[in-house]
Amino acid sequence: MDVAVITDRKERARAWFETLRDDICKGFEELETALPASAPLAGSAPGHFQRRAWSRVDHSGKAGGGGEMSIMKGRVFEKVGVHVSTVFGEFAPEFRSEIPGAQSDPRFWASGISLIAHLNNPHVPAVHMNTRFVITTKSWFGGGADLTPLLTHRRRQDDPDTIAFHEAMKAACDAHAAVAPYDKYKAWCDDYFYLKHRNEMRGVGGIFYDYLDSGDWEADFAFTREVGRALRSIYPNLVRRNFASPWTEAEREEQLVRRGRYVEFNLLYDRGTIFGLRTGGNVESILSSLPPVVKWP
């Protein structure tokens, strides 16, 4: 492929992930200030994102790009991270066989955004979203978004929040149906976010896709942007529905116990966590997906 084309695609993808980060952070800060005066924790100060840049070296010790962490702890969000990174270099020898296109040439470039939100209010579901663009001797997009209610009576496919979230993800796929079959990506998400050792799903699902290279780069990129916009649109609505709801100590306890499932998945199965750690990513950024308080009774 022409070098100029590759360079243009890299820059456009990187710029999009950073723009999406800014839009999401702005929207989440608005939720902090929108908490009604009658709501739990309304007497606390609204949170604001704190940003911190980081850099990395690859396995050979050469400079390999980096990223920027954006973390907020507030009265609505107990902990939320919205991170972007653009990294490059060479895959370590023991990792190359697992990555498409890296066997013949270990060089890579990758850019993406990763978001995970844990809320103070047990009635507000946690959410995760990430999208990325990766180049080796091949190139592809990947990512998705999924919802994790923490209370038993909310972990149902007929719950209004679950229905609304699935509708938003389906709309994102349907708008780009030629490259984004919704039924496939929904089933992929259900399979991916499954806790095999507990024989249960982590949450209520969403969509997940990887190695998306349809032959139409513009279409693949457009769909990937749509996933980010869908999350930016639907999730604040779900927060607003629930963030003023009172909660009991029993519901807080259930929230903390269910968060344990989140930790188990991210440390045992999550490919993004494994990829980041094995390519010299920023440990604090990678593990910021873990909730701030959790219980295993």
Structure description:
The chain is of the alpha+beta class and 297 residues long. The protein has seven helices and nine strands. The chain has helices at 3-34, 160-174, 182-192, 217-242, 249-268, 271-278, 283-287; strands at 50-57, 63-72, 77-90, 107-119, 126-135, 139-148, 194-195, 200-201, 205-212. It has a seven-stranded antiparallel beta sheet. Strands 7-8 form a two-stranded antiparallel sheet. A hairpin with a 3-residue loop joins strand 5 (126-135) and strand 6 (139-148). The termini are far apart.
How many helix segments?
7
Strand line-up of the largest beta sheet: 1-2-3-4-5-6-9
Structural class estimated from helices and strands: alpha+beta
What value does the average pLDDT take?
95
* CA-based shape: globular
**Poorly predicted runs:** none
N-to-C terminal Cα separation, in Å? Answer: 55 Å
Oligomer: single chain
The sequence of SSEs as H and E is HEEEEEEHHEEEHHHH
The total beta strand count reads 9
Proportion of beta-strand residues: 25-35%
- Give the proportion of residues in helices: 25-40%
Radius of gyration: 19 Å
For the biggest sheet, the summary is: 7 strands, antiparallel
